[in-house]
Every structure is written in C-alpha cells, then in structure tokens.
Amino acid sequence: MNEHSIAESGDEFKEQVRTRFAFLTTEFGFEPALDESSAYSHRLTFRNLHSNQLVEVVNAFHGVDYGFEVNIHLASHSRLLDQRNMVYYQLKEDQDVEFAYLAEAVEKLRSVLQDEA
Questions:
Q1: Most confidently predicted of 44-48, 60-64, 66-70
Q2: Cβ within 8 Å of residue 112, ≥6 positions away
C-alpha cells in the first residue's frame, strides 16, 4: 500500500485494530482503545494502569514514515522513541488492503505480554 491508500483506509484500519486487539481488554485488563490519530497517522492506544503499560498501535503514512508499528511503553513515562519496546512493524509498502499483517502483530504482542506475566 502507499501513503494515500493507507490514509484513506483510516476508519477501516481503526475498526480492524479495535476488533483484533480486543484481547488486550478481555485477557490482559487494558482499557478500551483511545483514538490518538493525527493528520499523518492512525493511532490507537490501550492503557493498563495496573501493569503501568501502554500499547500503541500506529500506522504512519507521511512520506518519510515507515508504516505500521506496535509498541509497548511504560504508561507513567513519556513516549520517547528510546523508551519503547517495538513488538512488531510492517513497512507501508508491504501492507495489504485486507490488513492480514494485523494477525501476526496480534500474535507477537500476545506472546510478549504472556512472557511478561
């Protein structure tokens, strides 16, 4: 996909993320997703106050951005790039319109969270 098609698929992308990442709420006690999207990215965050974790699911589509990422941050700290754990990424050129890459991202994130439990 290119940045234009990623930008246009924002509502569908966010719905797919809410559905596929619902396990964060049901299995790990995260709050429902908060939409923090901007002009150049679709961003949903899930916060768990008990474990002090913030999961950030972002698809950045500005011309110099790389694409899709799933990151874990400490919820009590700022979201600086050097203080994150990038769990999964998919370059925008390698993304598909069916969002199949989200399934792999979910499994990676679930595995990381289970290992931390």
A1: 44-48
A2: 72, 85, 87
